[in-house]
Amino acid sequence: QVQLVESGGGLVQVGGSLKLSCAASGRTLGTNAMCWFRQAPGKDREFVACINSSGSYYRDSVKGRFTISRDNVKNAVNLEMNNLKPEDTATYYCNTKYNSVNFWGQGTQVTVSS
Fold first, then answer.
1. What is the DSSP letter of 1?
2. H/E element holding 86?
3. Do the bridges between strand 10-13 and strand 108-113 make them parallel or antiparallel, or are there none, so unpaired?
């Protein structure tokens, strides 16, 4: 089993920044792909960014503003978000797959006020 715990969400004004963190426990994830998804009220959960042994990947709308990175010492993945926009408002979820099973964190709320 893998447990994922997100932190770092909050309320920020348009143009501001936040850094989300996702700490994993139960397994050392090493080079496992680790991803961030988000879900806004009334909308489907959507991919935001992933990092694996080949590199990092982003949805188009966050490219150039968000940066995903991993901290192998802390067995964690971070998402640095800059120049935030109201449309970034959502609950952000950390995700990884281990032994073909998807694991999710409980989510952290990000609210961008205009």
1. -
2. none
3. parallel
The CA distance from 20 to 38, in Å, is 12
* 76-81, strands of its sheet edge to edge: 3-7, 18-25, 76-81, 66-71
> Which residue, chain included where needed, has tokens 């192998």?
72
For residue 70 the two structure tokens come to 């991993």
Closest Cα partner for 81 from 107, 63, 94? Answer: 63
Digit-coded pLDDT (tens) for 50-97: 999 999 999 999 999 999 999 988 899 999 999 999 999 999 999 999
- Helix, strand, coil percentages, rounded to 5, for the chain: 5, 55, 40
What sign has the CA pseudo-torsion 98, 102, 103, 108?
A: positive
Query: What SS3 class is residue 27?
Result: coil
Please compute, for residue 37, the number of CA atoms within 13 A of its CA located in the half-sphere on the CB side. 17
